[in-house]
Design goal:
ACC_Biotin_Carboxylase, binds adenosine-5'-diphosphate, 15 helices, alpha+beta, 22 strands, five-stranded parallel β-sheet, 457 residues, globular
Length: 457
C-alpha cells in the first residue's frame, strides 16, 4: 500500500465523470439517495439525456474525448461546484489510478477502491501474480510485457500451443490473437503488436495458454471499509463478439453448483486478503472440465451490473456511494438471496451488413420495451443524433423472470418490442440469439456468436 490516506465524508453532491447511459444510471442512484448531481459534457453530447437529468451540467469544450479524460479540469470543476465525490462509471477515467489518487489529494472522495488496488489489478500480469499467491488458479503465461519476438516465441513454445496474445497495456479485446501453431506465431505476434501499438501507444503483449471453448464467468464482489466482503453471485458473459461482451446473464443457468460455490469462496477470500473495498468483478474462464482460471479483475462498476441488481434486488451504484462515505454493508452474505434469472442485451448502433461497423447519425424512430420484468438503460431518444466519437452501445435491455424458460420468453417479447430506426443496430442478432435452440438450452461458450453467426442470416 502506498502512503496515500483516503478518508470518509458524507456525500451530498456527486460529479459524474462520464457520459451516456451510465451517467443517467448514476444520476438515478443519487436522486434516490437525495444526493445532488453535476454532469459534464462535451460539445458532441450537448443534447444527451443525462445532461438534462443532472441538477447542474457543465460543458467541457475542446476535444470530445478529452472532455471526459482531462482529470485536472474535472477535479477542479468538482471543487468549484462543491461536490464531495466523483463517480467515474466505466471506461474513461474509471480505472486510472492517478486520477483516483488525484481526487483524494484534492479532498474529493473517489467512489471506488483504493488507487493502489486500481493500479495492481490494472496491470494484468501483476494481478495474475498476486492472485496466484492468494491461491487462485491462473493460466500459465508470461509474467512481463514482451516486445521481443524471439523471447515471445520461446515462452509460447514453453507454454505449448494454442496460446493467446494480449495487449499488455490495453483491453477491450484489442491486440488479441489466438496462435494455434508455431508456424503462425511470427505473423500473429506482429499483428497483435501493431494493433496494440495503434490503440494503446505500446505494442507490448503478454502470452497465456489458450483455453478451448471456455465460458466467461465473473463474480461480483462488494466490500466495505471494515473488512466485510460479500459476493453477489456470478454472471455468465460468454456471449461475445470479438472478445467483447454482447449478452450477459445472472445467474448462470448451467454452471455446476459446486463450481459456483468454489468460485464464490475463492473470490471472497482473495478480496478479503488484499483488503479490497467498494465493488469489483473478478473474471474467470471455465474450461470444458469445469476447471476455472482467473483472467482479470475490473475495479469498477461493470456495464452488466444491471442483471446482478435484478436477481439480488441490491442497488450496486447506491452501495458504492454508501461504502465510499464510510457506511458498513447493511447485510451479511446469508442475507443476500438470488432470485430468478436476468439477461442483459447490449443494443449497439452497428451495421450487421458491414461487419458490425459502428453506425452514426439520427435516430428517426424510437420505442423502448416495457412491461413486467423489463429494464431499459438507454442513452438515446427519437431525433437524437449519435456522434461518431464514442462507444456504439446505445441502450441496455435487461429482463428478469423467475425461471430460465420465462426469462428467455420475456427477452424475446421485449426485443421484439424494441424499435430503433434511422441507424442500423445489432437488434436482429439479439433476436436471433434468443430464438436459437442452443441458447435456449443454456449451451454457449465464448465462441458462440462466431459459430452461430453464419446460420443466423
Ligand atoms: P480484455 O481486457 O481485453 O477484455 P480479457 O482478458 O478480459 O481481455 O479477455 C476477454 C475475452 O477474451 C475473454 O472473455 C475470453 O473470451 C477471451 N480470452 C481471454 N483470455 C483467454 C484465454 N487464455 N483463453 C481463451 N480465451 C481467452
Amino acid at each position: 500500500m502506498s502512503k496515500l490516506k483516503t478518508f470518509t465524508k458524507e456525500i451530498k453532491k456527486v460529479l459524474i465523470a462520464n457520459r451516456g447511459e451510465i451517467a443517467t444510471r448514476i444520476i438515478r442512484a443519487c436522486k434516490e439517495l437525495d444526493i445532488k448531481t453535476v454532469a459534464i459534457y462535451s460539445e458532441a453530447d450537448a443534447k444527451s439525456i443525462y445532461v438534462k437529468k443532472a441538477d447542474e451540467a457543465y460543458l467541457i469544450p475542446g476535444d470530445p474525448i478529452q472532455a471526459y479524460l482531462n482529470y485536472f479540469r474535472i477535479v477542479d470543476l468538482a471543487k468549484q461546484t462543491k461536490c464531495d465525490a466523483i463517480h467515474s462509471g466505466y471506461g474513461f477515467l474509471s480505472e486510472n489510478p492517478e486520477f483516483a489518487e488525484y481526487c483524494w489529494k484534492q479532498g474529493i472522495v473517489f467512489i471506488g477502491p483504493h488507487p493502489d488496488h486500481i493500479a495492481l489489478f490494472g496491470d494484468k500480469m501483476a494481478a495474475k501474480k498476486k492472485m496466484r499467491e492468494l491461491g487462485v488458479p491462473v493460466l500459465p503465461g508470461s509474467d512481463e510485457p514482451i516486445s521481443d519476438i524471439k523471447k515471445a516465441k520461446k515462452i509460447a513454445d514453453e507454454i505449448g500451443y494454442p496460446v493467446i496474445l494480449k495487449a499488455a497495456f490495453g483491453g477491450g479485446g484489442r491486440g488479441m490473437r489466438i496462435v494455434r501453431e508455431e508456424s503462425e506465431f511470427e505473423d500473429l505476434f506482429k499483428s497483435a503488436f501493431n494493433e496494440a501499438k495503434k490503440f494503446f501507444g505500446r505494442g507490448d503483449v503478454f502470452i497465456e495458454k489458450y483455453v478451448e471453448n471456455p465460458r466467461h464467468i465473473e463474480i461480483q464482489i462488494m466490500a466495505d471499509k471494515y473488512g466485510n466482503v460479500v459476493h453477489l453471485g456470478e454472471r455468465d458473459c460468454s456471449i461475445q463478439r470479438r472478445h467483447q461482451k454482447v449478452v450477459e446473464i445472472a445467474r448462470s443457468p448451467t454452471l455446476n453448483e459446486d463450481v459456483k460455490r468454489e468460485l464464490y469462496r475463492t473470490s471472497v477470500k482473495a478480496m478479503f486478503k488484499v483488503g479490497y473495498e467498494n465493488v469489483g468483478t473478478i473474471e474467470y474462464l471455465v474450461d470444458e472440465k469445469d476447471n476455472f482460471y482467473f483472467i482479470e479483475m475490473n475495479t469498477r462498476l461493470q456495464v452488466e451490473h444491471t442483471v446482478t441488481e435484478m436477481v439480488t434486488g441490491i442497488d450496486i451504484v447506491q452501495q458504492m456511494i454508501k461504502i465510499a462515505q464510510g457506511e458498513k454493508l447493511g447485510f451479511l452474505q446469508e442475507d443476500i438471496t438470488m432470485r430468478g434469472y436476468a439477461i442483459e442485451f447490449r443494443v449497439n448502433a452497428e451495421d450487421p451488413k458491414r461487419n458490425f461497423a459502428p453506425s452514426v447519425g439520427a435516430i428517426t424512430s424510437y420505442h423502448s420495451p416495457g412491461g413486467p420484468g423489463v429494464r431499459v438503460d438507454a442513452a438515446v431518444y427519437k431525433d437524437y443524433v449519435i456522434p461518431p466519437y464514442y462507444d456504439s452501445m446505445i441502450a441496455k435491455l435487461s429482463v428478469w423472470a423467475l425461471t430460465w424458460d420465462q426469462v428467455v420468453n420475456r427477452a424475446r417479447r421485449a426485443l421484439d418490442e424494441f424499435i430503433v430506426r434511422g441507424v442500423p443496430t445489432n437488434l436482429p442478432l439479439l433476436r436471433a440469439i434468443v430464438r436459437d435452440e442452443d441458447f435456449i438450452k443454456g449451451k454457449f461458450t465464448t465462441r458462440y456468436i462466431e459459430e452461430k453467426l453464419p446460420t443466423f442470416n
